[in-house]
């Protein structure tokens, strides 16, 4: 990991210090995703089986997970593993239940009633990747808020293993979250299947979940098509930014950096600290801990794109953090909560040295589906609100229309929309004639 002195960098150098790793050619990814989406839309299940042979090296007869497979998955997990999934579900459900929106009814003026109603999205697609590692935690983060929101149809897609089955932990998590429709289909092809429907996989209205660059491109393609399905939020490679002062322990800083860097080769870890000595100690700890970890090959690449930035004070550190807009922000500083009001851009914040980022990934209760690649400047992490629609209603009495109608007519005339004015003025005339 390179160490930069923020005060010695010009504007271009500072931009370079905060630059994300460049992904593969975006046009190549987009072209590949487009071909997959079009093929699945045209050929349905036949295309899904062909892509399973091509990408997953497996021949699938049935795409849907059977009841026997669910039962076998539960039998294959140890009791403590099942309890861990159950505990995560409990905490995520508790936090997300508190987010449930309420209906609203308000008379803005006499005779003018405005309401907001809450409706669940009828059919949602949940994508759970299983490329370099299965992610039962992703099931929990997607399925729990979907269930709480009351979405009646919840469809889950996850890539098959080399043996042709879905990951047992993913299946157990799905079952515990009440998801019954699970399909052994992954990649961009699963996004297309959920967006348009196939002979086996139902069409959904909105698709949720992280994935590869090709999966993300497929989500964006189908979301731009009125006949497709909406997407949850923009997502890219995982990232973490740690702000540390003289109270931070280098070994814990290094552990936090590596926890996100292990996701894939494009993941990024940033340390911003007020002490060069801490930066140097953290870099040494990263090198030492990396040698002990199983995903060292991935880490060697991702750590090369990571860096340490030395700043003169914590005010500067927070300013740089806001500029970067990290997916995960960890404050290993003295009195971390004191700095929270100054944090403007972050997907999720972790306060203090006893709050490692994986707690949010797995079981604290917050959602781990978060905006990456700087999108935290404008987007929020996943919540129950993403699984519902907020529909407004208005109702006017005759007196309400008499009082407010002329305002609408004036505004319509101001905009040159005489048909708008006509729809109101005709009613006003009828009310006047019937008095």
Please explain how this structure is put together.
With 435 residues, this protein is an alpha/beta fold. It folds into 3 domains: 2-23 and 236-365, Rossmann fold, CATH 3.40.50.1980; 26-234, Nitrogenase molybdenum iron protein domain (Rossmann fold); 397-433, Single alpha-helices involved in coiled-coils or other helix-helix interfaces. Helix content is 45%, strand content 17%. It is built from 16 helices and 14 strands. The chain has helices at 11-17, 26-43, 45-56, 67-76, 79-97, 136-149, 168-176, 187-196, 213-223, 250-261, 276-290, 296-304, 314-324, 358-362, 398-415, 418-433, and strands at 2-5, 104-109, 112-120, 123-127, 153-157, 181-183, 206-208, 230-231, 239-244, 268-273, 307-310, 326-332, 346-351, 388-396. The protein has a 6-stranded parallel beta sheet, with helices on both faces. Strands 6-5-4-7-8 form a 5-stranded parallel beta sheet, with helices on both faces. It has a 3-stranded antiparallel beta sheet with strand order 2-3-14. Helix 6 links the parallel strand 4 (123-127) and strand 5.
